[in-house]
Write a structure and sequence with these properties.
It contains nine helices and eleven strands. By secondary structure, the protein is of the alpha/beta class. The strands form three sheets. The protein has a six-stranded parallel sheet. It binds NADP nicotinamide-adenine-dinucleotide phosphate.
Length: 286
């Protein structure tokens, strides 16, 4: 029978440990605070920012939403990031994507303080993700691996096919899988026959952003699939990159919604607790 790798239980475990850490910081007189920069114009980003706000409230974390107009100029955003970097009461900074054309995500991300980079997007933390050095790793790739392990899978020595090599999910996930000692094949937009690579895989991760692109005919009964895709259809439904019918033909599949995305949000807050620790080690609290 196919296992649906739902993330609720794994996410609750993360939230429980986050809650304990936040309580301890509160007792020490520190209120962890996360600042989100939202450039208006993308309803999905606004929705995710609100969802994080509600969760932060539940966890006792202060949440600052910095909404900027759609036509904001880059130097205004740069000044805001610099101000948040310098503000000792802010522990985490997130820049919601996508951004309008006049703004460069990579330029803006590169000026976030690595110690406050809860999304793991700065060059310093990207390098840490690659090497395994201490740092703040991107949340979604962490969620992919953690969800798989929660269901009892190990990665060492496994044949893994990764579909997608994007900056947010696929590429950092590739580095993390290497460090887990998996044998990884990376497929992308120029790979002619993805089904071939799935046939030889024991575990697959899919992070493309094309609804239902992995068809049931492409999977097999021994394959565990983690679907990181989040796609909004015209009728407003959210779907993954793997068609739901594939669940019947695979050993295990993470659902969308209710899979990687659910755990990603929890790990973002876990990253915040790491960020607080890093900052209070780096700059001793009076
Ligand atoms: P991205 O940067 O746009 O990268 C997409 C990747 O897919 C690229 O490597 C691209 O190949 C590959 N690709 C495109 N068309 C393909 C095709 N026909 N066959 C095979 N590969 C193809 O995407 P991303 O930002 O990494 O995000 C990937 C997905 O994860 C999206 O659905 C996004 O919404 C989702 N996501 C989920 C979460 C979460 O919390 N669950 C968080 C962030 C993102 P090339 O490199 O050759 O162009």
């Amino acid at each position: 029978m196919t296992v649906m790798m739902k993330a609720r239980e794994a996410a609750d475990e993360v939230y429980e440990s986050v809650r304990i850490k936040i309580d301890n910081w509160n007792k020490a007189g520190i209120t962890p605070c996360i600042a989100t920069i939202l450039v208006e114009g993308d309803p999905a980003s606004a929705y995710y920012a609100q969802a994080k706000n509600r969760m932060a409230d539940k966890l006792g974390i202060r949440f600052e939403l910095h909404s900027l107009p759609q036509d904001v100029q880059e130097d205004v955003v740069i000044q805001l990031v610099k101000r948040l970097n310098d503000d000792r009461s802010i522990h985490g900074i997130m820049l919601e994507l996508p951004l309008p054309k006049q703004l460069s995500a990579s330029r803006l991300e590169s000026i976030i303080s690595p110690l406050k980079d809860v999304d793991g997007v700065t060059p310093v933390n990207k390098l840490a993700t690659l090497t395994g050095a201490e740092g703040l790793y991107p949340a979604t790739p962490q969620a992919c691996i953690q969800l798989l392990k929660h269901y009892g899978y190990s990665l060492e020595g496994r044949n893994v096919t990764l579909v997608g090599r994007g900056q947010t999910v696929g590429l950092p996930l590739f580095h993390m899988l290497q460090r887990e000692n998996a044998t990884v094949t990376v497929c992308h937009s120029r790979t002619p026959d993805i089904a071939f690579h799935l046939r030889h895989a024991e575990i697959a991760f899919v992070a493309v952003g094309r609804p239902n692109m992995i068809k049931k005919e492409m999977v097999h009964s021994e394959l565990a699939i983690i679907d990181a895709g989040i796609n909004e259809l015209n009728n407003g439904t959210i779907t993954g990159d793997v068609e739901p019918e594939a669940a019947l033909h695979a050993a295990a599949l993470s659902p969308v919604p209710g899979g990687v995305g659910t755990l990603t949000t929890a790990i973002l807050f876990e990253n915040l607790t790491k960020a607080v620790s890093l900052q209070h080690r780096e700059v001793p609290h009076p």
